[in-house]
Amino acid sequence: MSDLVFRPAHELAKLIRDREISAVEVLNAYLTQIARHNPKLNAICTLDEDNALTCAQQADEALASGESWGPLHGVPVTIKDIFETAGLRTTAGYVPLKDYVPQADATAVARLRNAGAVILGKTNMAELAGDYQSTNSLFPRVNNPWNLDYTPGGSSGGSAAAVAAGLSPLDLGNDIAGSVRQPAHFCGVYGLKPTERRISTAGTIPEVPGMPHCLRHMMTVGCFARSLDDIRLCFSLIAGADHHRPEVPPVPLDVPSGKELQQLKIAWIDQWPEVLVNEEIRSRMHAVAQNLENAGAQIESWMPQDFDLSRILNLYGKLAAYINLYAQPVDRYNIRRSFTQIWRTATQGDRTLRRLGDFSRLLPELLNPSLKGYFETLTERDRFTAQLDAALEPWDVWLTPVAATAAFTHRPAWSAVEVDGTPYPHAVANGAYAMPFNLSGHPAVVIPVGQTQAGLPIGLQIVGKRWREMELLAIAQQLDRIVGEFRLPPSY
Does residue 80 have an active-site annotation? Predict the structure, then answer.
């Protein structure tokens, strides 16, 4: 059963349910894989082995008695360390939370438990979800399973690395600026960022416990897996209204249209005019478009009119400044960390590109916030969302790159990233293709579609209509059969 740890979660659930294998055997297979590979990856920062074993034993006993816990009965899963887990340390990679043990689960975690999942442990991440790499002051940095000298991305790097390396079949992440999509792209796995407010964020930490609920916009809860079937299953289990977050509406999951590939109208773009992507990624985007056209899809290169990236990223930054301002304590540690980020994004990388991602222009909002300014920002954001809704209406999905580059080597936080010989500001290289859809609230799923010559994964971002995740995933499934190229990292 050497391939057991790479079976999809839904297959593991069926094997356990049909009594072809026990939940304890599945858990032990993952524990063996973790013991072998996690010391070099640092993807799992807190392993809950004893409790997971007890839960797996109880799952087997329940099945023997004819009792089913749900669709994930006995399946081990991991949880990004940003989600509160009852009785299990939750740190978000933040030193003041190194001994924090929540009393209750985050809503998304509770829903996985209620579906029968066994919580195996917590996955490592960027400190307070604040970087596109996964480093913090509590645990060793996370390494990419495709090449340990490279980052798995961030802030959910531990999640993506764990799923890619067979340490877990399924993981929860969060995404406010690409924190699910960029690591999925860097590690060659599937990742979903749903419509904003589709899934409750209750129990998610960038708001340090005790601080007010500030992250009311752009923050989403998503998931990682090695198949779209698992993404769909996980999403369907954790989506929906929650009394802990009254702003999450009771919108039922959509029903896919059932369109055949030949009926789909697909838009695609290989790069934003302002932020060029790595040549290998661009070449792969062209190959994807050609393969889909050969398969009979109606596909066309397209950009919305008035898609002003500078305005979009500036608006994103202003709103991010407002909603993050009171989410964390104002102390020397956080101030120093924030100003390091601002300084590096303002001074490193190509001068022209710095104008797109220069966080220093957010200082007025950070130092002198106003209620009027906040409402003006929200009003402008509403206009952008409505404009993108209208622009996407004729299309079933829009295909874009995930980031300007594939995974890059480890470096100090927020340092410049080289793209085909040009140094890009960190936020621009990693966020320019992700942030627009956090700002607008549209759902996006990432599927692996190839590799660079250096053997690093390349992901494809598929953007859908708001509140139409099931349609998006159904279309992604069709595209995945033609252009998807999921591979296991070597030596795992």
Answer: yes
